[in-house]
């Protein structure tokens, strides 16, 4: 095979790009993944390990709009926005506000639920057929609340989930204490969501997916794509070392940097980044039975094979601003208060860029002017969860097969 050409070039070696490589290689396509860093070293490295098959409610929602005024300018709160970044992000925030209107919100829930349904089906099947289900854990997630009032306020989420067939079970008292020993008594109510799944190490899983693709013949090229030059058939990728790669088709799955490649192609997609923070503590830092979500505080704590990960929150601050690790420390301090037995020494802090679109749905589909170029980005904090579904849709589109679900809600045209 020619190292300077391929059938499909995938720009980006995170969980989305690697999953697309596996699916396309399974379908017989000659695939090269172009990634400037080690595979899965970006957002795929630092997430909470959740296969969030119950997470159907968009960030763009009436509840977030109600809370935004209180949260946005708290640098250590669940959702923050540095004032200096406001002029740049204002158009994106306006789109988010429009997507939060009741009619749009309900349509986006339906689109998210449909994609999540496909994600569950495809991920579990992919893990089974590749033998990677060894990474899978099935304990569900425990969402906890401080008092009956906060629990009652969360019932709308449970109702929306149930409308889409996602069951959850309220717990309190002795059962809550049994599900997670040592939880602070301030948390009096909980919701157990059995359909939720977790993996033991999200980066290890993504790397293993990439290895599976390579075992089937996919190639990895460590380069940065500087530009994509469309032609009459396919495109040429200009690389950072002065060389180029010719591809019959191109998939842009470069996470939070994807809009830098889509804009010159005629698609100025309104991509922003939800900067997420976490601290990974050594294994054994806590006897943690399953992932716990502290919904009102905007963070989770997850048991991983690499340690106990405390992270979450959303910082809307772009790609250039230096990390503010006080956010990671604030979540760690809360986790210690909520789970007093947690040992907080020896942790590793991290910040990563979650590619986010204002309606909380990814872009999956063809470039408007170039039918051989495809987009697969903008999954926010659901990249791991939606990776196999995205790969299935990309495989269907490239192969000319009827898509597994209606792709209309995810097409780039919705922004123009």
UniProtKB/TrEMBL annotation:
Lineage of the organism: Bacteria, Pseudomonadati, Pseudomonadota, Betaproteobacteria, Burkholderiales
Keyword Lipid biosynthesis annotated: no
Species the sequence originates in: Castellaniella ginsengisoli
Listed GO MF terms: oxidoreductase activity
Signal sequence region: none
Swiss-Prot/TrEMBL keywords: Oxidoreductase
Listed InterPro entries: FAD-dep_OxRdtase, FAD/NAD-bd_sf
A GO cellular component annotation in the UniProt record: cytoplasm
Pfam families membership: DAO (PF01266)
Stated name of the protein: FAD-binding oxidoreductase
Record keyword NAD present: no
E.C. no: 1.-.-.-
